Amino acid sequence: MSGPAAFSGMLDSCGARARRRFAPARRPLAVAARLPKKGTRVIDVRLYAHLSSASNRGPAEFQVEACPGLTVRDVATQAGIAPEAVYIVMINNDRADLDAALADGDRLGLFPAVSGG
User: Fold this and answer.
1) Is the overall model pTM greater than 0.85, yes or no?
2) Is there a single domain that holds both residue 27 and residue 57?
3) How many domains does the chain have?
4) Predicted local distance difference test score (pLDDT) of residue 107
5) Are residues 42 and 82 in the same domain?
6) Which helix (H) or strand (E) holds 64?
7) Which of 5, 50, 64, 84 would you label with 117, given CA atoms 20 to 30 Å apart?
8) Which of 96, 100, 23, 38 is nearest to 69 (CA)?
9) Greatest alpha-carbon span in the chain
């Protein structure tokens, strides 16, 4: 087997990890439209579950300007979310707490306590 069919078959047999490695990185247009100006220091924030509807920021994804001494608690408060409502904090895919300091380029994820099965 040769040609594009062989290549796509190879990717399927290698699994999802191989597909991600070979697939071109794309940024959704909605995210690309919100990119800050060059030289601006920003933190990407993502609100999960009902925190996005509790926020006064609107969408579940937004950016805040990085400034010295900024903490997760500050970002939650600025977004209109009570710090007590945040159960899990993730900074760059690592678990953190509400008093963790944020830096330029960080990715912050805020999760509420959820239940279900």
Assistant:
1) no
2) no
3) 2
4) 96
5) yes
6) strand 61-65
7) 84
8) 100
9) 59
Rounded Cα distance between 18 and 55, Å, is 37
Q: Which domain holds residue 22?
A: 1-33
**How many CA within 13 A on the CB side of residue 50?**
7
CA-nearest of 30, 91, 28, 96 to 58 is 30
Asked if 25 and 69 sit in the same domain, the reply is no
Residue 54 CA to chain centroid, in angstroms? 17
Query: pLDDT under 50 in the chain at which residues?
Result: 1, 3-34
Judge if 93 and 107 occupy the same domain: yes
DSSP state for residue 69 in the 8-state scheme: T
- 100 in Cβ contact with 72 (< 8 Å): yes
Q: Which pLDDT belongs to residue 57?
A: 75
DSSP letter assigned to residue 83:
G
Look at the block and give the residue holding tokens 């805040």.
Answer: 64
- The answer to whether the beta carbons of residues 83 and 102 sit under 8 Å apart is no
Asked whether the CA dihedral 33, 34, 39, 45 is positive or negative, the reply is negative
